[in-house]
Design a protein that fits this description.
homotrimer; transport (chains A, B, C); alpha/beta; oxidoreductase (chains A, B, C); P5C_Rdtase_cat_N (chains A, B, C); 8-stranded mixed β-sheet; 458 residues; Rossmann fold; 54% helix; 19 helices; disordered C terminus; 2 domains
Chain lengths: 458, 458, 458
Amino acid sequence: MQKTFHCRISTTSERVCVFGTGDMGRSLGLRLLQAGYGVVFGSRRPHSSSSLIPHGAQVLGHAAASQSAHLIFIAVQREHYDFLVPLANQLKGKVLVDLSNNLRKNQYPEANAEYLQSLVPGAEVVKGFNTLSAWSLQNGPSDANRQVYICGESVEAKQAVIAVAIKLGFSALDQGFLSVARELEDFPLQLFPQWRLPLRIAIGLSAAFFFYLLIRDIIYAYVTQSKDISFRIMVSLANKVCPIVSLIMLSLCYLPGVLASFLQLYRGTKYRRFPDWLDRWMLCRKQLGLLALGFAFLHVLYTLIIPIRYYVRFKATEQNRTTQFDTTTAWRGDSYLSLGILGFGLYVLLGITSLPSVINTLSWREFSFIQSKLGHLTLLLCTAHTYLYGWNRFLSSSTYKWYTPPGYMLCLVLPSVVLLLKLLLITPCVDRTITRIRQGWERGADQRNPKDSQPLIP
Amino acid sequence: MQKTFHCRISTTSERVCVFGTGDMGRSLGLRLLQAGYGVVFGSRRPHSSSSLIPHGAQVLGHAAASQSAHLIFIAVQREHYDFLVPLANQLKGKVLVDLSNNLRKNQYPEANAEYLQSLVPGAEVVKGFNTLSAWSLQNGPSDANRQVYICGESVEAKQAVIAVAIKLGFSALDQGFLSVARELEDFPLQLFPQWRLPLRIAIGLSAAFFFYLLIRDIIYAYVTQSKDISFRIMVSLANKVCPIVSLIMLSLCYLPGVLASFLQLYRGTKYRRFPDWLDRWMLCRKQLGLLALGFAFLHVLYTLIIPIRYYVRFKATEQNRTTQFDTTTAWRGDSYLSLGILGFGLYVLLGITSLPSVINTLSWREFSFIQSKLGHLTLLLCTAHTYLYGWNRFLSSSTYKWYTPPGYMLCLVLPSVVLLLKLLLITPCVDRTITRIRQGWERGADQRNPKDSQPLIP
Amino acid sequence: MQKTFHCRISTTSERVCVFGTGDMGRSLGLRLLQAGYGVVFGSRRPHSSSSLIPHGAQVLGHAAASQSAHLIFIAVQREHYDFLVPLANQLKGKVLVDLSNNLRKNQYPEANAEYLQSLVPGAEVVKGFNTLSAWSLQNGPSDANRQVYICGESVEAKQAVIAVAIKLGFSALDQGFLSVARELEDFPLQLFPQWRLPLRIAIGLSAAFFFYLLIRDIIYAYVTQSKDISFRIMVSLANKVCPIVSLIMLSLCYLPGVLASFLQLYRGTKYRRFPDWLDRWMLCRKQLGLLALGFAFLHVLYTLIIPIRYYVRFKATEQNRTTQFDTTTAWRGDSYLSLGILGFGLYVLLGITSLPSVINTLSWREFSFIQSKLGHLTLLLCTAHTYLYGWNRFLSSSTYKWYTPPGYMLCLVLPSVVLLLKLLLITPCVDRTITRIRQGWERGADQRNPKDSQPLIP
């Protein structure tokens, strides 16, 4: 115990060792110097390296360098780790921080940090700092990732490394034992893992509706009336695909929550896990919603530039006034636009409250009020906006070119289902049951003593 | 002292106990296991509970479980706390973390944590973690609230709990003594307390101006000309209410600051507290400003869809060119639009710099530059935008239907007053006095020795 | 060692002393009391001060107060520091926290904290908390800057101050030795140092293009056709300046990265520092990009209000249909608008991912994917948007009024160059070389043993 504490404080005023004088090693050394540490570099050729290293640091051979500090950063590529084997004795009891990354996933059978531990069994290996780039180390943790993830077997060793991280201005997060090292090493290689499924859904839906509408609008006009209106692809068609995909994505964002409620209602308990597909779906709701917002944003822009279009301006001058002013049409048109605006306003509000720093200022109840109550209201407004857009065209047979329904009709199916199910859930009798289930009540469990198996948060 | 330190480190590698195998208890236990703790659950029926608990944890009876750890999380509802009374002896000296929440405010006469302390006087009760949901515990502190609030009498006990919180990836904030527990227990129940007053003002203003304009525009046309233009409610009326409310809210956001300056000027000192109403008003300036931005955003959207409206397109074809092109009108119209755009641009900039994560990157001087200088500039641009909108209609008697001024005239009163007062404040002689007051100077206090009562930050 | 630990814990349950009962001192004292500290104010006239100080604190003379605590906050202006000289003996070994700020840069030859240290050489001076205002201290670190910066010679003293900062709800960042104090004292006085250069570029470009276009458009029409179209300044001219400046700023944001790659390619190594101007340029890329986004946002608003303008509505009614509908023009117009919309959508995405809290959730690879890949795609879309806007007017001699090219042609030069250079960089053979260089390969260095001088992160 005493020892740990000692090392934790003393590292600050004492020396830290860095093996490797490459980019990463030098950047780290510079930052350590700035934070007030003494830095000793370990190098194979100390004399030729000394010109490269930051001013104020020392360069020694590996063995000599390792003697000067309790904590040693290994800023060397994994392929060269074998130089550590002959040093195993000197490194006994030292804390070795493995900074290494790989160029691709599953490059090696085991994690670099585990390999390092196997080479120097007497040392206490801690994986960490590998999610930082040399650039962000040099320039401080102002803009780039401030978080540092570490893992390792020894609590004392991790404490010492956390202390250094904090001194350097990072906040360190202990991720557990060394077996997590592979995950940490994969982290810098990952590219939006949570966005993949939602992005694929968005692209798939966009492509499907694009071709559907291409056939119904452009090709239909060409085949039946020999008119070339292919120029409409760029704006008119895009402005149909965007709102359709946005509305479907938004209902996909709220569907899993509704399904989960019905599942709990059916099972009569909340203590059974959801099926895996539902769990995974629920975890990507945020991404689905944000993509929906992106498509809605494009829809708004595409709509607003309509009057500037050459085609529209040309039409306007051509148009002859043949009809009387129709108040119903005016009502319908203005309501349709107004609902769209209000829906988009709420949409943007949902987007803003998805920003990490805004979420952090919200209590749990506030967050769920916005994301659930306002979210369903947004869905309601956007769905009503689409229904008003369709208006009485649902009944006219000329709408169904080649016996196919128009895109906006297809995209209304899912949100209507979600809203109907949600309506069922908020009817008083169902709502009462679901609230009791969420507070821990279990159907058919009343005879059991539920004393300490009850949850605390509804 | 030694003991504290000992417990702080040793908890990490040792065991933590969780009483209660409900939702919250199990989620917490799982997270503790992932962070490398040994976890022992305390349950009334250890055998029947063991199937539910996360893999790797142990279940024992309450008495046996409490012996295995120094830190015990009480994940049981308050109604069942009495089972702890017979354990009082075993719990002596232990740290008990009260996780409980209530279903509504003032459900019980005293805070749950204080009640717990009264039941087990020998233990050191710490309130904490109750602002987290079981969901956010299970899924880690990535998206939901990362902050954990704790309070308690014993510094050592709180240190131990903070250490656990940090290990679990949360950042812990010590809020003081156990008397704060009630506040912490109310926190998850609160719903935008700071937004209530500004929201009520916004709704009140919207309703008032809606009915005022409904009478002046729609009903007036119906009564005097028997024309039904009720369809204008959806867009035209909304597009009058939004900018009016936005401008008034924005001036309400800057008025208290100006009033405070005049109060300091009148009193000749800054060392007297502002009246309570002014303090409360100043604390909700941010919310007033953000709501104003929301209304401005809707105003922009409502304005931009004007040319798409059926009514406007119908009018356009009907219109006969009767007038000559008027350069003054062109100047006025374009200036009016341009000021509106620049004002909205600054508005959005103010909104972005209100995001918590952006504020954190600004120095105090930068923050006040944006929120004060740019804020007043925004108000100036928006007010000028409205004046140009009115233009010479202020003088025409036909503007005053039923002897009432139009909405945009009414909404100009407050911003004009704020801008005039601000103008007074930045005249050199007044500015000099206010600056001296803010630097600690007091009128009539020159004979006193102001040595160590002077402030440091202007 | 033991002593340090002792003071770190004991300060929490014990007393802290504050010298000075001004604004700052009282605010700090109040906050310390709320966090559970005992607070003793040191004042020259303890009896007259006692009415001002927060309830629960004590006021004593300086000498008596200093005896009651190990940690003393000096909330007094620098001019009055001399009262500390006679107390030098009592202050020996105490931790003195210098909170002071100056009214302007370089007000004194040395930092206030260094001056304080010279007056009381036996004490351990720590600079800190000076970036906070009294206001943010009173109202807690919720909205204003949560970060506290400290520096000082003694590690133990800094640890004690960090512990207090954490208790008060701030996160403390150790910036190094006392020599950094001057920098910390200058911090509250700084006003967007990183934004200066980009802002100057933006203003310079705006002014240059404004006058260029004023001459080409307004004055040319007046001179050659005696037409007064000066009203166009407000919207038409603004809507030319905004997109031009935006596109140039965006290419200025991506040019330094491309130049750096070519420099590395030419040098055959990445281990030589970039020239200073390139380094400085690269550090303000974010600001350049965000300003470009601001101008693009204004351009979008200016474009969207076009159909509402009096001039445009007047023209529309005047217009006689003389031409046939031209599908090519429709294609060109719609593509131009569509590219602009998509470009702006990506632009906004880049802006959102520049928010500090969003950056923190991205891995390094994700961040560079967005800022580099999507950034260059944005530049490509916006450049194509501008080329389509020009269309065949590049070839028509009437475009070149007074032999000058129009603004959109001038602004295409830089983005075209950047895109061409980038295209060169991503051709397979060049890309292979640059990737090897970034992984640490050096041209002509193969004979050397590169073992431990290799970087770890590509």
